[in-house]
Amino acid sequence: MRYLPLSDADRGEMLARIGVDNIDALFADVPKDKLLTKPLDLPRHKSELEVERHLGRLAARNVPASSVPFFVGAGAYKHHVPASVDHLIQRSEFLTSYTPYQPEIAQGTLQYLFEFQTQVARLTGMDVANASMYDGSTGTGEAVLMAHRVTKRRKAVLSGGLHPHYADVVRTLSRMANDEVVSLAPDVRAKEDIFAAIDDATSCVVVQSPDVFGNLRDLRPIAEKAHAHGALLIAVFTEVMSLGLVTPPGEMGADIVVGEGQSIGNGLNFGGPYVGLFATRQQFVRQMPGRLCGETVDAEGRRGFVLTLSTREQHIRRDKATSNICTNSGLCCLAFTIHMTLLGEAGLTRLARVNHANAVKLADALDALPGVSVQTAGFFNEFTVKLPKAAAGVVEALAAKGVLAGVPVSRLLPGAGLDDLLLVASTEVNTDEDRAALVAGLKEML
Amino acid sequence: MLNRSGQIAGRSDDATSAGGGAHPTFTGNRALQQEEALLFEIGRRETTGIDIAEPEAFKPRLNGLERKGGVDIPGLSEPETMRHFVKLSQKNYGIDTGLFPLGSCTMKHNPRLNEKMARLPGFGDIHPLQPLSTVQGALALMEELSRWLLETTGMKAVALSPKAGAHGELAGMMAIKAAIDAKGEGATRRVVLVPDSAHGTNPATAALIGFQVKPVPARDDGWVHVEDVKALLGPDIAGIMLTNPNTCGLFEPQIVEIAAAIHEAGGYFYCDGANFNAIVGKARPGDLGVDAMHINLHKTFSTPHGGGGPGSGPVVLSGRLAAFAPVPYLKAEGEGLTLVEHDAAAAEGEAPFGRITAFHGQMGMYVRALSYMLSHGGDGIKQASEDAVLNANYVRACLSDLMSLPFGDKPCMHEALFDDAWLKGTGVTTLDFAKAMIDEGYHPMTVYFPLVVHGAMLVEPTESESKASLDLFIAALRDLAMAAKDGDATRFTGAPYHAPRRRLDETRAARSPVLTYRTPEPVREAAE
C-alpha cells in the first residue's frame, strides 16, 4: 500500500521491541466480542490510476460552471481565480501544516492570518476581524450569539432579505439554545417594515445587503433605530466582491459584519469549503468567536505573530467559551488573502465595476423580454426577475439546453408563493455570448 | 526590508540565534531563511496583479450606495505576490517537512492524488444550487462516501454537512436534544456528562445549546469507570460525551457497560470521534453502543489541515437518532438521487432538526476523503489503523525508560502520553522540552493536553512514518531527555534558537491586542 512505509519485517521487529506477539495484543482493551474478526464489506485498495478513473467517471456526470453560460448565485458565485492562487495554497508548508499553536515555526500561517484580518477589516470598514469562520451562514449564527452576550438580551430580528438558508441556520441554533427569533417575511422589493420589529428586548437586527433578492440596502436608518433601543446591527453579505463598489457596512453603523468570502480566491466546490468573514468594533473584541492572530515580539525583540485572546476559546474556557469553534477555514483564508493581494484596491474596484456592469447589461436585456420584469432597483451583480410561469421548470428546461440560468426562489423558499421569481447573477466570467444565450433561451421558453 | 519602526526586520545582534557565531547580515536574512515584511508595508494601492479591462461606460444602479474613499488595500504584481507568499511558506512546518507528532491531531500524510481529484471541474467547479439533474455525479459521490462511513462505523445514518469536528459535535448534540424534545423530556433532561480529559470542544458544544455540563472526574488509570458514570445518572441526564479512544491514548475498556448505563437512564451516548483513526477496520462504534459520533475527515481520512482548516465533520447516527438528522440529506429518487433541503420536505418518520450550514457541507473534503478510502480499500484502512497503533507503541516502548508514563507501562492506541514527572528538578518544563524539539527539526508533540495529566506530552506519530524515521526521532528525543537530566537547562529554556523566531511574547499580545495593521502616522500620534 503506497501510503504505508512499514514493511512486514519492520512490523515484526517493532512488535518484538514492544514485547508483544501480535498486533491484536495492542488492542487488548477492546472488548473481545467487539473486535472485528471479518473484513468490512468494502472494496480492496486501488492504484492511483484506478482511483482517478473511478472518481473521474463521477465528476464527468456533473456540469461545471465554466462549461456553460452560467448565472447561478444566491450565496455562492462563479468568479475567475488566478492560477497563482491555487499554486500557492498547495505549497506543502501551507497545505500540510496545523493550526499555529507553535508560533516559532508557524510564522507563515500567522502572518497571512494577520494580513487576512487586516484586509477583512478594511473591506468591511470595521476595526477588527477574526481569522475566519466556516462560512457566512455559520458566521451569522455566531454573530447572533455574540450579540446576545454583548447586550445580555436573547431576541434576534431577522430581515426577510436574509438568505433563507442563513435564516434557517440562525433559527436552528436559536431554537436549540432557547433564544427568541423574529423573522420578517421575504419581500422581493425590500419594503419590509423592520423598524416596527425592533424594541427594547431586541438584541440584534440581522440585515443582508445585497439581500437575497439582490437589493442593496441602506443600513443607516436601521442602525439608528437599533442603537436607539440598545440593540446591535449585524450586517450580512453573501457576495464579498460587492464591497469593492458599495458603501461598507462599517460606515453605515453596523456593529458586527459577517459574510461569505468564497468569491475571492475560492471555487464553488458544490458549497464548501468556503470562508466566513467576521468583523466587529474594537470594543466587542473580547466577545468575538473564533481565532484571532495578534502582533507581538520574540525574545530578541523581533516582530512576530501569535494566536491571541485565547481565553475566549474552547480549549481554555471549555463550557464558558464564546464559541465551540476549533478548526476554521485556514487554507481558504490563505486563498482569499492571496487573491486579494493580487487584486489590491485597484483590481478589486475594477473587477467589482465589471461585475456590476455585466449585471446591469443583463438586467436590461431580460427586462426587455415580453412578460419578464426585473424586480430589483438597486443591485450589485445579482437581481430578481419575475417570469410569467414557475421559475423552477424554466431553469430545468434551460439546463437541458446547456444554460444554467439562475436559482428559482422556490428552491430556497418552497411554498412561499414566490414560484415565478428567478435570481440571476452575472459576474466577470459572463461574456456577451453567454448573456445572449440566456436571453434567447428564455425567449423561446416563455 | 525595513519594518515600521524603521529597523531592519529580523536583524539581531545575538549571534547565538544565527547558529554559532555567524555574522549578522545587513538584510536580516540568513541565506534561505528570509525575512518578509507585511503586505501593507510592501504593497501599493495603485498596483494590481490582475489584468482586467474597465467596463464600457454605463449608468450604475447602486441605490446611491457607492463606496467613497476607497478600500485602502494595497496590491502586488504576480511575481511579487509569488515571492511574498513563498517566503511566508518557508517559515512554516508541515507534514511534508518532517515528523509531526501532534497528539490528537493526526498529522498523517496528505496524498496529492486527493488534491488532484478535488480539483476536477466536475467537483470543484459546480454550484450548490445548480439543478440537481446537473450534479448527479456529486450526489453519487456523497452517497458512496456515506456508505464507507456507515460501514466503518456500523451506524444507521450520516449527516454529512457539518463543516468541522466541533460543528459535527454540535450537530450530534442537536440531534440528541431533538430526540429528547420529541419525547417531551426537554425540560428535565438537561445534564450532559463530560470527562475531565475531554477536548474543550465537548463542554463548549454542550453549553452552547443550553445543556448543563457535569464533569466525570479523572481516575489515576486514565480510564472512565462505569461506576463513576452511574453515580452521576438520574432523571435529568441527557447524555454523555466520551472520546474513544480517549485523549490519554487509551481505549475505554468499559465502553459497552457505560453505553448500557446511559441508555438505561434514558440518555444518549455521544462519542467524540477525533481518535477514530486508531480503530477503523478494528472495531465499530455502532457495535459499542454509540448514538452519535463525528468523524474528522481531516484527521482520520487525511484531508489536509491547511494551517487550521478547512475541516469536515460528518456525524454518524444510531437508529435512535437517525430520524432527526439535519437537512440537507440524500434520498434515492427514480434512478438518481435527490437532496431533501427543507424540513417541510421530510418524509413520514423523518423529523430533521433543522439546518446547520448554508449548503451541503464540505464537498471538497468529501472528494479527498473518498479518494483516500478508495486508495486504501477496506484492507488498507485496517492496516493504517494497526500501523498507527504500532508506531505509537514503538515510540512509547523506546522512551519509557527515560520519560515517565502517567498510567504505567501498558499499551496505548495511536498516541503515547507522557507526563513531566521525569523532568522534576531539571529546571526544564514541558514547554521548554517542546521548544527544544523545534531546534532538532521536529514539530513538538501536543503539550499540556489532556489537562488531567501534569505537563502532558501527547505523541502521535501516525502510520505515515517509516521505522527509520521513528528511530531517528526516538534517538533525538533520548538525546534531549538525557541533556535535560544532565542539567543542560539552557538548551531548553532559551529554545528555540534556530527557528525563524525565538520564543514569542504571548502575554504582550493579549494585554494590548494588535489585530490589524495600522499604517504608522507619526504626526497624528504626536498630536494625541
Question: What does this molecule look like?
Answer:
The complex is a heterodimer of chains A (about 450) and B (about 525). Chain A has about 450 residues and is an alpha/beta fold. In chain A, about 35% of the residues lie in helices and about 15% in strands. Chain A contains 13 helices and 13 strands. Chain A has helices spanning about 10-20, 50-60, 85-90, 90-95, 105-125, 135-150, 165-175, 220-230, 315, 330-365, 390-400, 410, 430-445, and strands at about 130, 155-160, 180-185, 200-210, 230-235, 255-260, 275-280, 295, 305, 375, 380-385, 405-410, 420-425. Chain A is globular. The model of chain A has no long low-confidence stretch (mean pLDDT about 95). The two termini of chain B are about 30 Å apart. Among the domains of chain B are: about 155-370, Type I PLP-dependent aspartate aminotransferase-like (Major domain) (Aspartate Aminotransferase, domain 2); about 380-510, Aspartate Aminotransferase, domain 1 (Alpha-Beta Complex). In chain B, strand 8 and strand 9 form a beta hairpin. In chain B, strands 1-7-6-5-4-2-3 form a seven-stranded mixed sheet, sandwiched between helices. A three-stranded antiparallel sheet of chain B has the order 10-12-11. Chains A and B meet through helix 1, helix 2, helix 3, helix 4 and helix 5 of A and helix 2, helix 3, helix 4, helix 5 and helix 6 of B.
Brief description of this entry?
The complex is a heterodimer of chains A (446) and B (528). Chain A has 446 residues and is of the alpha/beta class.
Question: Characteristics of this structure?
Answer:
heterodimer; A: 446 residues; alpha/beta; Aspartate Aminotransferase, domain 1; Aspartate Aminotransferase, domain 2; 2 domains; seven-stranded mixed beta sheet; four-stranded antiparallel beta sheet; 13 strands; 36% helix; B: 528 residues; three-stranded antiparallel beta sheet; 16 helices; 12 strands; disordered N terminus
